[in-house]
Amino acid sequence: MRKILIIVICFVYILNQVAAQVWSDDFIGLDSITNISTPEEINPIYLMDIYNSGDSILFFGGGFYYVNDIEAHGIGSWNGDTVYSFQDGVDWGLIESIIEYNDTLYIGGSFNTASNNPNTARLAVWNGEGWQSPSIGQPGSEVRDFCIYHDTLFIAGNFSTIGGVSFDKIAAYNGEEWINVGSFGMYARALEVFNGELYAGGYWGVRRYLGGTEWEIFDIVPNGQINELTVDTINTFLFVGGQITQIDGEDSWGSAVWDGFNWTPMGVFYGNTVFSQASAMYRGEYYLGNGYYFHEDDTYETFIKKWNGESWDSIGGNFNDNILSLEVFRDTLYIGGGFTYWGGDSPIADKRSKGLVKLYMPDNGCDYLKPRINTYADTFYLEGGEVDVNLYNNNPYADTWEWSFGDSQIGDVKDPVHTYTAVGEYNVQVTVTQDGCVKSAEKMIYIAEGSGIKDIETIEMQIFPNPSSNDFMVKTSLQDYKNAEIKIAGLNGHLKDVIPVNGETTIIPTKGWSAGTYICNLFIEEKLIKTEKLVFE
Fold first, then answer.
1. How many helices and strands in the chain, by DSSP H and E?
2. What is the pLDDT of residues 105-140, one digit of tens each?
3. By the 8 A CB rule, do 173 and 179 touch?
4. How many angstroms separate the Cα of 170 from the Cα of each of 54, 157, 165, 179, 184?
5. Which of 97, 317, 410, 497 could form a disulfide with 488 if both were Cys (CB 3.0 to 4.6 A apart)?
6. Omega before 467 cis (within 30°)?
7. What domains, with CATH codes, occur in the chain?
8. Which 3-state string (H, E, C) describes 317-382?
9. 490-500 residue pLDDT tens
10. Eight-state DSSP code of residue 514
C-alpha cells in the first residue's frame, strides 16, 4: 500500500509539473514564417538566432523567405503584435547571429549580400533605412557570433580577412576603428563575457582573452568543438556546449560547466551536440535544445531539457527536427529551429509549426540558487603554527553570507580569509540568502603539520612592486625550481593565470587586468605553500 501511495504521489507531481508548462506557437500578429508563399504547405525553414532587444523587440534570423506575406528573406522582427522586415533581407545564405551595438543592428552569417548592397556579404549593418557594409568592408568567410566586451564589439567566425585586412577568425570594432585581437588559426563559433572576462569557443575548445592579441589556452578542455557559451550570472557558471562527450576523462555529453576554479561534467542524457545559439538561462536555470529520442525506424525527435544543478530534466516539446536557437523574451522561452512539427507536452510531435515555439514555465521557487565553496587546495599546511585559507563563494549578488569555518568561528562576507591554528579536518559551511531564498553548501578542508616539502620554513615569496600599475615581479627562494608554479586568483577568486616558476624571479604579466586585489598562490608539487595579495592599480 505504501509503494502504491508513493507511486501515486510521484505521478501527481509529474502531472502538476507538466500541467504548469504552457507551450504555444500562437503569436499575435505573427502568423507564419515560411519558405513559400502558401503557408498551408509544409516547407522547412531555419531559425538560427533569436535576439531580445530590451524586452521590446524580438529579432529572428536564419533561412526563410516570408514572414506572414512579407518577403523578409532571412531577417525579421516582432514587437508583440506587429512584424517588420528589413529592406529585402539577405540573399543566398543564412543569418547566424544578431546583435545591437551602439543602438545599431548587426547581422552575421553565410549570406552573399544584404539586399544586394555592395560589400555586405556575411556581415552587414542596418542604418535605419537599408543595409550597408561595415566601415572596413566584408569578411572573407562566414561570421558566427558577436559579443560586446568593454564597450567593444567582438566578431568571431571562419574568416581570415575583413575588408582585405588580416583578422584570423576574430576581430574587434570600437565604433571608430577595427582592432587586431589575436589569432585563432581554426574557426571560432561562440563568444561570451564571464566574470568580467571574454571567453571564446571553437574548433579548438575554449580560450580566455588576456588583452592585446593574447589568449589563454586551458590545460583542460572539453574533448570536441565548442559551438555555444552561456553564463549563469547568479551562480557564476560558464556553460559550454558543442560536439563533446567528455571533460577531463568524465562523461559530459554536449555540455560542461566551468566555475572559474574547476570543470564539472554533466553526465549522459540524450544527445551530444549543442548548436550555436541553442541554449539560454531561463528562470536562473540552464535550458538546452539538444535532447534526442530515436525511434525504431531511425527517425528522431528533439526536445528541450534543463540542468537542475545535479542532473538533466526533460522538459518536452517533441520537435521533428533540430532546435537551433533559444532566447528569453518577456519571461517566456522562445525556441527556433528547422522543425515543421512539434508536440508540446504530448508524447508525439503532431502540431504544425512555423519554426518558432514558445514555452512558459512557472516560477521555480529557489531552485535557481546553487551555492558552492571553492578553494585553491583541499589541504593547507601550518607555518609558524598558523595558516590563512582563502574561501570563495560563487553568488556575487546574494544579500547575505553566513560562514561556519568548522572551528567554532563564523564570518559574514562573500570571500573570507580564515586563519587556522590546529591540525585537523574542518567542515566549512556557507549559507547564502538572496531575495528570500536560503541555500547552503559545504566543503571539507584539511590542515596539516608541514607539507613534506624540504625546508618549507625557509621558503620565501616576495612581490614587488606591490601595489603596481604594471607587471609584478615575484622573487622566490627554493631548493630547486622543479614542479613549482604560481596561480593567480582574479576578482571573485576565479583562476586568472598559471605561471611556471623556473628561477628566482618570475614575472606576472598584467595585460588586460582590471584594477583591484588579486591573490598570488605559490604551489610546489601541487601543494599550496604561500599566498600573498596583489594590488593592481
1. 1, 55
2. 999 999 999 999 999 999 999 999 999 999 999 999
3. yes
4. 26, 7, 12, 10, 7
5. 497
6. yes
7. 21-76+288-367 (no CATH), 369-450 (2.60.40.10), 456-537 (2.60.40.10)
8. EEECCCEEEEEEECCEEEEEECCCEECECCCCCCEECCCEEEEECCCCCCCCCCCCEECCCCEEEE
9. 867 888 888 99
10. P
